Amino acid sequence: MTDTDSVTVVRSEEELFRRTEHLFATATEVSCAANDLWTFAWQHGTLDTPERVVGTQHRGPVRVRKIYRAATLLDPVAAHHLAVRRDQYGADIRVTADEINETIILDRRIVILAGDRTGGQRSYSVITQPDAVHGVSSLFEAAWRSATDLAAYDAGIADIRALAPQVLDLLGQGVKDETAARSLGLGVRTYRRRVAELMDALGARSRFQAGVRAREIGIV
């Protein structure tokens, strides 16, 4: 662990939880940007998330906002979990196809930034310096304004989610579009549109990159 006057760097999720549990317990506003469902999972006996920590320990009202990458909704299990978090915990969830910095903001006065994984563990920076917190909060608000409500985005991606495993498998095999479309009972134009929509959800610029991103989030 390393510290400065306004930044504390911790080397694992377990250490992060120990040092911030009390902050989540008293927070009245939690904002989070995450690439996938399991970002910022707290290992404390059982797997917890910020919503769950706040929901079980905080005695007053709390506002929870979360932004997820669109690729998360390609996984049916993850999509279900997000709906549960929204409905049971009252979390306000939006979705974006853009790149995001994985971040948690507590009461607009504390920022937690996720770092790279080294040696199988991820480091986190806990920041309290007001100007830095304000800067990160401004970036989050901009991402929030441009993101799409979970229900609206999920309705548009439902068909893509259903076809994603087969399409990714066909792309991985290098099957020609005409043959792939026929195997799925689709027209070639429809198939190509589905591929383009899938690539957009994955944030991929090529079909090869789509396969890489899909493996990273575990949907193939």
Structural key phrases:
nine-stranded mixed sheet, 220 residues, WH-like_DNA-bd_sf, HTH luxR-type domain-containing protein, elongated, Tscrpt_reg_LuxR_C, 50% helix, 8 helices, alpha+beta, TrmB-like, two-stranded antiparallel ribbon
The string of secondary-structure elements, in order, is: EEHEEEHEHEEEEHEHHHH
How much β-strand is present in the residues?
15-25%
Unreliable stretches? 41-56
Largest sheet, strands/sense/barrel? 9 strands, mixed
- Give the spatial strand order of the biggest sheet: 1-2-10-9-8-3-6-7-11
For the record, give the distance between the C-alpha atoms at the N and C termini, rounded to a whole number: 36 Å
Which class of secondary structure composition applies to the elements?
Answer: alpha+beta
Give the rounded overall mean pLDDT.
Answer: 84
Number of helices: 8
The count of β-strands is: 11
Organism: Gordonia tangerina
InterPro entries: Sig_transdc_resp-reg_C-effctor (IPR016032), TrmB-like (IPR051797), Tscrpt_reg_LuxR_C (IPR000792), WH-like_DNA-bd_sf (IPR036388)
Protein name: HTH luxR-type domain-containing protein
Domain HTH luxR-type: 160-214
